[in-house]
Amino acid sequence: MFRPLCKYVIWIGSLLATQQPLLGQEVTIEQIKKRIATYKEDARGTYESIRWFCKDGSVRMPKDPCPDAIGGIQHATYKPEVVALGKSNHVFLGQILAHTDKQEFWDGTKAQSRLKQYQMGRYLMRVDDGWVNRKGQYYRGAIQIEDEQEWGIAFYKWLLARDENLRQHYYLIMQSLKDIPHKGDYDLSLLVRAQSKAISDQYRPFMDIRIKIHSDPQPEDIDRTIAFARAHKDQLSVAQNKKINELIETMGKFHQPVSFQHLEKKINALSGSNALKPDLKHFITTNTGSGSTRQIAGAAANSLLKIRTNISREKQAAQRLALLDIASQLETMLFQLAQQWETSTLSELMEKNYVLSKAAAGIGLVELWEWKAIAPILEPTTGNTRKLYQLTETMEAARSVLEWSTGTANAVYGNVVNTYAKFEPLAYGFIDDRIRSSIALHLGKSVGELGAVIARESQLSNKVLQLDNQSTIRGLNPGYAFGELVVVEGNPEDLEVSGKKIYVFDRAPSDLKPVAGIGTVSEGNLVSHVQLLARNLGIPNVALSRENLEDLKRYHGKKVFIAVSNMGNVILKLEKDMSQIETRLFAVKERKEERITVPVSDLKLDRDRILDLRAVNAGDSGELCGPKAANLGQLKALYPEMVVEGFVVPFGIFKKHMLQPMPCQKGSYWAFLNAMFREAEKQRKNGVAETEVEAYQLQQLEILREAIKKMPLSQDFIEDIQKSFQNIFGKPLGSVPVFLRSDTNMEDLKDFTGAGLNLTLFNVLEKERILQGIKDVWASPYTERSFKWRQKYLLNPENVYPSILVIPSVDVDYSGVLITKGVVSGNDRELTIAFSRGAGGAVDGQVAESYILKAEGGQKLAAPAREPQYKTLPTSGGTGTGIASFETPILNAGNLKDIRDLASSIKKRFAKETRSDYQGAYDVELGFKDNKLWLFQIRPFVENKKALGSDYLESITPKIDKNKDIPLTKKI
């Protein structure tokens, strides 16, 4: 009776631990879905009733207006549960602007969530016939557009009075002008896209026209739509015919010739003291009636950038709003011009890429400092020819602007999209709608055309199914794989992945388990844990555009072959199109998959006392502790001012505790673990399918993991911890926030990094949390993800021994990773760095600020940061969340110099001081606090030599003459 009772008690305890308090509980997603369905059918939608809201604060009935002496406005009130939803879930449905508090609407402490939700609501209303107010949009008196416009003007005057809002949120403010009524111009491109989507959702034969309108809007779309309406008039309902006529009318307005007269009125309305007025009037006088498409487009891009750069010089908020409305009109003009701008030579195409990239900076899609860093590469130069490598650099720079632009849209709106998509899948289309309604649409096409030219000249071309614009696809690390293609939209964090499938993500999940191949739109950075694990396992890893992801959807579920060459060109083909050589690759791979054995003969498990970090060095790795602690101890000796104090819980303490009797089992924890591996091997010999063996192992590991978390710690060990805190940190246990870092003997092996597989606990303060945290870290090597990665590469995954590195928290301003070589180029004379704001930066797959530092001096900005939030480490323990903006770089010139100096020192000293024969690059984790550099970890940088040296991958990598001269007059 004991063992079943024991399991029952454990189950009850787990159940109670997961219960949520009833008071203050958030409304569930299912409840929100049901409410939305109800609101759609409600004649009043999200609204309760009409009221007068008087300026003295009183609220009156509809037939009792505010006295003229007081004044007021009339609009609807919200249903009580709509108001409650805003308080419990911070979700705001059917927002009415009039009478809304401006500070609350700006929602600064929540990353402007409420404003963005207003934009999301407007989008959903356009694409879903009113959405939550499908019938409520006709509720008379609910919203008065005049009051909404007056509120919008007042809001922008309040918002634009602060310079920091323009510096930090230029893109968001520019986008909000398209949605918030303020007597400005409505963005017709958004309306065209919304109306065409609404028609195709109701009448599927319209889909082809919708796709054309969304991807390449042209005036001829009007005639095509008219012809469609005539051909399908008998199948279309009256309502559908009406919608098509409305779309035709909107497209007619959208494709009207550029109106300089309308723009001139706006410019003339600027005050005489406005510093930008002369430049803008010059734009009108120079281009009206005489300018070519190319000339006007270039001048419009210049004006957009001038407005953004100089708008803060104008101190009146009303004038700032007028300038932003002019900028919005210039963007619309440039959008139309870009689709008319035909290029016939390479020189013209390069100029178009430059102009559109400059416009992206002008409207806020890239930051001004980012544009300054990349503009010199894009700027057209004199001369008749360019070297192939120079053209490639130009194309890569333009592609970077495109990627950074889409990254901005994701960073600004991603959180709101993820929130809404849980209860309204249509929300996933919002970011795509913003991107395709911006200049980024035409920049993407122009980059693709330049990429196609370079591909032809270099013979370095991708062969990715039948996709358009393949130049936006590039390989991040080499390898090949075969499996089912899975295209994942939205948040991937809860997705259950398979090691036999190839996944395409908008962004990869932070704790990705082994898969056959990876493609990402938001690649994160080249030195995140996921990227490093994929790299050392030879998993092909590809970056692609959002358009590529959309195109790949039609191949979802198909068996495909993917390969990334050593130079980064990509092959993706259906199973039926594989060559005999490609088919044989996998038969060989199955038989000859190389795995390694973790050495255990040198383990010193009799050492069962805590070790001061100063007493540990690199020679202790794999004997007393893992490489994190051993190498950090070595770093403490080499760079004492850059490394914190700390102590190490060695392997021996873990093993001693694992030899205790395990509750509800016959033997110890250690005996249970080894019995599981013996049984698994027995099942394999008896012909049990590997999937069943793995399921058995994972089930047993879950039992072990939960038992370790509840394992009693010996009194001697607890006393040892208390003494270590006092002696090493100078304060008692429970008063110093610390990191608890798992550090196993299976990390940083010669051919396997193990980066990020096991648990690190951030900023733990309380005594009980630290003691529990030690057990949680000990249990973490037995998670499904950690086990699967080890199983894939190691012959003896059962011999895992975790030690724990305990160091005090440093609440760094920014942190990241240094690789002492060029990750992409393989050049040992380069450095690769990636940093994010706050703690734990770059390693978790964040879209980090990345540079390639050149040995001869200077650096190349590989990517700017695009993480809207970051982790802080308060002295009270736990983690906080900061909100980021991107108007300034993370790293300054002094930081870059410190990183260079450190890398040089590591290359010269580390192997020598550790008496190691290791000759490769190092992977270093570090951070800055008040511009002081702190070192947290150093390990060998591991790459998959089999993938890098594969004969097949070499065979698909063309030999390129990088110095080949290409005439700029070349026809395209």
TrEMBL record:
Residues 624-947 form the Pyruvate phosphate dikinase AMP/ATP-binding domain. One of its GO terms (molecular function) is kinase activity. Keywords: Pyruvate. InterPro entries: ATP_grasp_subdomain_1, PEP_Utilizing_Enz, PPDK_AMP/ATP-bd. This is Phosphoenolpyruvate synthase. It comes from Flagellimonas nanhaiensis.
